[in-house]
Specification:
It contains three helices and no strands. Helices cover 43% and strands 0% of the residues.
């Protein structure tokens, strides 16, 4: 079980994943999961797609502020955001699967 989401702040010593069951496959799955975790100083768009969406929303919001007043940038940001959301909405994410004896196998 993941205790944190991608992009979350993780305090020193905080758990990232929890596995249950002391069977050999459970221990093996825990090792595989540990090998899939990458920690960094900053969030990245490549590893955290929600962060990319947040950046686009922030750009649109700031463009509409009275200090900037740039509706063209806001419209362009919303155009790109709608394209990203369309792509996410039409992607079959249920085809991604996990097997305890192997790495996750995204089918998309």
């Amino acid at each position: 079980m993941l205790c944190r989401r991608v992009g979350d702040f993780v305090p020193v010593g905080a758990p990232l994943i929890q596995t249950y069951g002391g069977t050999a496959s459970g221990v093996r799955a825990g090792g595989i999961l540990r090998g899939m975790i990458l920690l960094g100083d900053e969030r990245t768009i490549e590893q955290d797609p929600a962060f990319a969406v947040r950046i686009i929303v922030d750009i649109a919001d700031k463009a509409l502020s009275p200090a900037i007043n740039d509706p063209t940038t806001a419209v362009q940001a919303l155009d790109h955001l709608s394209d990203v959301l369309r792509l996410i909405g039409t992607t079959d994410l249920s085809r991604s699967r996990w097997h305890a004896n192997s790495r996750p196998v995204p089918a998309w």
